[in-house]
Amino acid sequence: MSTTAATAPIMDPEAPANPAGSSIQAGSAIPRELYALVAQQPFFKGLAPHQLQLLADSAMKMQFEAGESIFEEGSPANRFYLILEGAVALESEVKDRGRITIQTLGPGNDLGWSWFFPPFYAHLSARALKPTKTIFFYGTRLRDECEKDHELGYQLMRRIAEVGTQCLKATQLRLAECTDTRKLPADL
User: N or C: which end of the chain has fewer CB within 10 A?
Assistant: First the structure.
């Protein structure tokens, strides 16, 4: 994955986002800013402060330019994103049709939940349609935290199941459009 303008440095996925531990350090603007940003996301509403802190400790801000690939179908899934600004196309390859847009996501939407489910490979591709700002989360680290804190795992699973159901419905509708030979979708 390439990023053209990450707002925080790219870090080793296994290195702690907050080297001093899981508590916010006095005078450290980035951890406090990330915690506040994570805490205000509707997707995480209702999580306990220590769970929000675990999420913030595994997060950083990133942005993508228009047309930039965020991840590719079939690639290893070890991260996920919450979209703050911009637009992202979820795309899939369809035999004899090429790549089609399944769904367009925008601010408040989450992206890339394959990190939570074996075999940990992306089921769709994601591409920024315009400059897009996100919160990036290290999924492999959070998977380990979910093993330690089953309540966190349950809370994330509930949210992911809802998103997965919505994505499945969008995929079904889009594929039905693609198989209707009387009317081809505009992007084919």
Answer: C
